[in-house]
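Exercise 7b. Backbone tokens:
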């Protein structure tokens, strides 16, 4: 995204960052940039005493810790304050430990006070059901869960209590998009509100991007976001993604962003994908399970008389104290 910023030398960067943070001017949700010995600090408005310039910044999942300094909770509970939370548009989504439930209003007010771009704070009780709907309670701000989230220069309308969306996947979505070659037929089997599909359609040159989702609320936002971003090469289809694969031509690339139970969709993809096609699949695993998972992907391909090779494997982000979300890029021949 494009933002005004303060350019300072590396030696002064931390002092100026703290000054801007205290003044409520440091922009959240974008990564601080650095070129040579110059650090660029994105701001929401021009600060007194500092010249500003304008440039592009990379949007990011932003762990925010400074709210702890103003949170009015008992001293013995401070170590339990969440060290980070997700921000989708102007909504902060935070997991509140059970021990802090009685103080969740104070926690939420502290987040609002420190983060000027946040208007709503909601407690996250986890993702439930086959449609991956996040269970939320608004703790502070207006009683709403719809917002507009901006990522990689595009914008998405989403109701975070009705359709799954994770800002932590922003870098992963760009990593996958950058692999798409001109003329490819791409399928996003669990498209949600469309961040993979729209990004690929707008930033690459696919022939078509099929975007499937079985959640009626997510599908409504998917169609809206295709229009909002003028992503004409995206073809949304409502229904069960793995079943819809049989109704389209064999694709070159398939995205399976459903880590809770990825195997049925992976098995549905294997007989449909073109030779040399790529499957991007995800799983929530402990590190010790990685090799077993990789071998499982290859053996499942052999069961469909296909050869497969895991071209890349990477940790996307943490999921729990012992488990992480991993991405596997599987080339099928």
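Sequence design result:
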């Amino acid at each position: 995204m494009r933002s005004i910023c303060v350019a300072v030398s590396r030696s002064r960067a931390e002092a100026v960052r703290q000054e801007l943070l205290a003044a409520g001017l440091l922009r959240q949700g974008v990564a601080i940039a650095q070129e040579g010995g110059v650090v660029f600090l994105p701001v929401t408005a021009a600060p007194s005493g500092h010249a500003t310039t304008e440039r592009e910044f990379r949007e990011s999942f932003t762990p925010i810790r400074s709210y702890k300094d103003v949170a009015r909770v008992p001293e013995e509970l401070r170590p339990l304050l969440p060290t980070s939370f997700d921000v989708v548009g102007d909504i902060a989504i935070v997991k509140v430990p059970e021990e802090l439930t009685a103080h969740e209003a104070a926690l939420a007010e502290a987040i609002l006070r420190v983060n000027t771009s946040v208007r709503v704070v909601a407690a996250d009780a986890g993702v439930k059901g086959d449609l991956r709907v996040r269970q939320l309670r608004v703790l502070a701000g207006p009683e709403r869960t719809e917002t507009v989230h901006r990522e990689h220069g595009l914008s998405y309308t989403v109701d975070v209590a009705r359709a799954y969306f994770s800002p932590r996947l922003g870098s992963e979505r760009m990593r996958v998009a950058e692999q798409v070659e001109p003329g490819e037929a791409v399928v996003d089997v669990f498209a949600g509100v469309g961040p993979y599909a729209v990004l690929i359609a707008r930033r690459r040159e696919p022939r078509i991007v099929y975007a499937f989702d079985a959640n009626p609320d997510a599908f409504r936002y998917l169609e809206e976001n295709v229009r909002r971003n003028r992503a004409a090469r995206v073809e949304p289809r409502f229904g069960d993604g793995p079943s819809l694969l049989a109704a389209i031509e064999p694709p070159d690339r398939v995205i399976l962003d459903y880590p809770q139970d990825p195997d049925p969709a992976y098995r549905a993809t294997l007989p449909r994908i073109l030779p040399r096609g790529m499957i991007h699949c995800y799983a929530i695993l402990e590190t010790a399970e990685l090799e077993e998972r990789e071998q499982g992907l290859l053996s499942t391909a052999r069961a469909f008389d296909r050869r497969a090779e895991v071209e890349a494997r990477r940790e996307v982000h943490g999921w729990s104290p012992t488990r992480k979300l991993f991405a596997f890029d599987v080339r099928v021949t």
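Instructor comment: The chain has a mean pLDDT of 93. The helical segments are 10-22, 104-114, 170-177, 195-203, 216-228, 241-244, 263-269, 290-303.
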